[in-house]
Every structure is written in C-alpha cells, then in structure tokens.
Amino acid sequence: MKVAKIRLRQEPYKSFIVHHEKDPFTPWHYHPEYELVLIIKGKGKRVIGDNVSRFEKNDLIFMGPYLPHQWICDVQNADPVKGPDDEAFVIQFEYDFLGSKFFEVPENVCLKRFLIDSVRGFEFYGDTKIQIISILHQMFDMNDIKRLYALLTLFEVFGFTKEYNYLASPNVVDKFSLLNNEPIQNAIQFILTNFQNKIRIEDLLAVTNMSYASFYSSFKKAYLMPFKDYLLKVRVGYACKLLTEESKHISEIAFESGFENLSNFNRQFKKIKSMTPSQFQDQLHILH
Fold first, then answer.
1. How far apart are alpha carbons 251 and 266 in whole angstroms?
2. Residue ranges of the domains in the chain?
3. What's the Cα-to-Cα distance from 77 to each of 83, 84, 88, 207, rounded to whole Å?
4. CATH of 4-166, one of 3.40.50.300, 2.60.120.280, 3.40.50.2300, 3.40.720.10
5. Percent of the chain with pLDDT strictly greater than 70
6. Which of 119, 124, 142, 209 lies deepest, with the highest CB count within 10 Å?
7. Can you give the pTM of this predicted structure?
8. How far apart, in whole angstroms, are the C-alpha atoms of residue 205 and residue 261?
C-alpha cells in the first residue's frame, strides 16, 4: 500500500497533458503535476490526502503537486469481466509549462494564490463547477492549439472563483509533501482504505513493520494525534458527507462509516463536531 509516483505520458511537442481515462482508475499515487479531474462515469469512494468522500458523475476536483489521491469505484453491479464502468477526463500541467515567469506576473497574483492553496485539493461547486465542466466537454474535440487557449480560460476561472471546498487538512499535506516516512504512509493508506471495517493495532504494526511503541510515537509526531483519534476523524468526516446526501438513515451511515453501534457513533460524532448527527442534518436544512 505504498504511495506510488505515477505520471501520465506526455506526448511529444505538447506542453501539458489531456487524458481521457477509460481504464480502471489509478491506485493510490502522487505526481509533481497539478491535476484537474472530471468524473464522466462511475461512482464510489474518493481519497484525497486524508479526506475520504463519495464521488459520482460530474465530480470535479483540482489538486496541487504531490498530494496522494485515489478514486475507488464501487464494485456492486460491475461487469464480472470488465469491472466497474468508470471514465474520467484529466488535465495535468507543471508549474513552469508556460515558462518560469508566467504565474509570477502581477496580473496572475490571484491565480498563483489559487495554485498555492491547491496543495490541499479543491472540490468545485455552484456556477463555477458548471462553467468548468462546460469548458472541459468542449475540450474533448478541440485541436491542441484551441485546448491551450481553453486551459487559459480555465485559469481565468480559477483566479476569480471562491466556489470550492478544501479537501485534505493542512497538517496532512505538510507531512505528505515530505514523502519520506514510508511506514507511516503505509499505515495512513491502510486506514483510509479500511476505515469502514474494524482496524486493529496489529494490522497497522504489520503494514509498518514497527513495534507498538515506535509506531505510536512516530504516528503522533507526524500527525499530532494518536492513530485512534486520526481514525475517528476519518470516520466522522466520511459520515458528514453521507449525512449531506440524505439518502441513508443515520443508523446505516453509522455502520457504513465504520462504527459498530449507533450510540457510539452519536457519542463520537458529537465529540468531534460538537453536535449530534441529527443536529448536523438539521443545520444543513437551515442553511438551504
């Protein structure tokens, strides 16, 4: 479960990558390029740094360099031979693909700020999401020159919009950017992949090949909290996403988020969010 460095192939004489992904999505990985991802088909679980959420058609994400990520498609009702029916449209570019000074000019100060903040990953919403999706669909059939100018139009949108939510937490981004603690990376990936099931300390010691004392101190030093608190925050974060969708009963959400019973879910949720799951949903109704 080591985070892999995987890069898409850049065609000769092209300054950035436009990729129509029709194969099974890439496993847990990172790369030095900025990346814009539009899900065209498929639904399942999305992991961006330490953020775990659901995705479906028209999911639209922008990520800065070296942020580990993975889209895990649901296998229910998948073709037994071909697997899940997933498809995405991906754009990748490096910071200096237009020259070393393009993002440094005064007119691009807002765009540069957007790129700096994107190390945590963004999820777009609202009119911005609609506008970006429209541009991406037009890019499908464009030639290389028109695609470049379409990308510049996207940059204009990026520079002015505030319609996005941050994904990964700042502390986790700082730690992932170092990419120098493979055992703890393995533990994080195990937690993010298996948080819906029971996770024992023995499982984490096995994937890290560490003693309990060494693992406990290393994890707390890297994430400023014990691994049990980290696991709890991942589970509650995922539950929040399911609660916003309002398609499941709270008891179903509790079990799907990795809690063994409803009372423990309510207690732990209130500990993290200072409100019960029901109050969280009521607050959403007020906001809408």
1. 10
2. 4-166, 181-287
3. 9, 8, 19, 31
4. 2.60.120.280
5. 85
6. 124
7. 0.68
8. 26
